[in-house]
Design brief:
The protein is about 80% helix and about 0% strand. The longest helix has 26 residues. It has one domain. The two termini are about 30 Å apart. By secondary structure, it is mainly α.
Length: about 120
């Protein structure tokens, strides 16, 4: 039960942070939903740092991992919103926005995880 509460708490904070980031950066003036992209890339970087650091040291406990990686990063990142935004691009026939947003998000997300793992080596 304690583990579920940690994930719940971290997820709540992550979701609220993503909400405010989306309110700030996702608007109709931008062709790209920068808030969603940024939350996914930052969350990927953070999970790389957390799990990379956890793999090399015993200073991060399983409890902290559940709160930060599973909870916060899980709530902060959003595949469902990313998928829906891509659906809207395809529905509107806006392939010039769809392609860079989709592939840019994937490349930056994977790159951020690898960068986070690399950064964790120096912590």
């Amino acid at each position: 039960m304690k583990q579920a509460l940690l994930v719940f708490t971290g997820g709540g904070f992550g979701s609220v942070a993503r909400y405010f980031l989306g309110k700030w950066l996702n608007n109709f003036e931008n062709a790209v939903p920068y808030g969603t992209m940024l939350s996914n890339v930052l969350g990927s970087l953070l999970i790389g740092v957390i799990l990379g650091y956890l793999a090399k040291t015993s200073q991060v406990s399983q409890t902290q991992s559940l709160l930060l990686a599973t909870g916060f990063c899980g709530g902060f990142t959003t595949f469902s919103t990313f998928a829906y935004e891509n659906h809207l691009y395809l529905k509107q026939g806006d392939y010039l926005s769809f392609l860079p947003y989709t592939f840019g998000s994937l490349i930056l997300g994977f790159g951020a995880v690898f960068l986070g793992l690399y950064i964790s080596k120096f912590l």
